[in-house]
Q: What sequence folds into this?
């Protein structure tokens, strides 16, 4: 850990993809499938990288402004059908969530993922009961790095920004948390290039999810 002055926290806000669950293969494979089926071409690794961490609708609008709705449908159908075989929780996730629960820490998800996808994942992994609030793509007008989703979660939990930490693997998560006034924690085990995440200036850097327990213990 680094750049973090310990304080009493009452809430933890977490991103989902790349923070709680290793969904990189699931996302990449679904993107490739959708573009090949609907647009008849292959996505380069560089293109895939640029679409990571942004809302699905924005990705599909960029890929096909005139037919993006169809791409969203194809992506979701394929992704949800294959999710159980392609995604997994990061080691230590359950234990970390249980630790927060034992210490009566309020927990929230703040994700750019659609609610159907989030609920499918929570049901699959059996972790929905840990979270007091879930903010998804449909709940906000402005997505991360805008702080709208973080502020909505804080309001739902009845917390001041300084009483909570925002944890995520992308620079968008860090920037959203900073803009909202929370402690910011970079999840370095996720999908994003570490250099990009560090340039967003997180308050704290963690190498694995179990290390988050040091926030409160």
A:
């Amino acid at each position: 850990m680094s750049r973090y002055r310990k304080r009493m926290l009452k809430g933890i806000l977490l991103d989902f993809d790349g923070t709680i669950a290793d969904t990189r293969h699931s996302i990449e494979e679904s993107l490739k499938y959708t573009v090949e089926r609907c647009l008849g071409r292959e996505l380069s690794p560089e293109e895939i990288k640029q679409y990571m961490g942004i809302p699905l609708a924005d990705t599909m609008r960029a890929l096909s402004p005139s037919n993006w709705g169809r791409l969203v449908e194809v992506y979701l159908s394929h992704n949800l059908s294959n999710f159980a075989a392609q995604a997994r929780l990061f080691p230590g996730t359950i234990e970390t969530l249980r630790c927060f629960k034992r210490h009566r820490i309020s927990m929230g998800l703040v994700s750019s993922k659609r609610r159907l996808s989030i609920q499918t994942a929570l049901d699959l992994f059996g972790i929905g009961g840990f979270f007091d609030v879930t903010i998804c793509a449909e709940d906000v007008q402005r997505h991360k790095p805008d702080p709208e989703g973080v502020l909505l979660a804080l309001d739902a939990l009845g917390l001041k920004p300084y009483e909570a930490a925002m944890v995520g693997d992308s620079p968008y998560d860090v920037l959203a948390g900073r803009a909202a006034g929370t402690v910011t924690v970079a999840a370095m085990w996720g999908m994003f290039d570490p250099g990009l995440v560090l340039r967003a200036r997180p308050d704290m850097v963690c190498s694995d999810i179990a290390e988050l327990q040091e926030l409160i213990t």
About this structure: Strands lie at 11-14, 21-22, 88-89, 106-110, 133-135, 164-168, 183-187, 204-206. The chain has two domains: 11-23+88-215, 24-86. The chain is about 45% helix and 15% strand. Residues 24-86 form one domain.
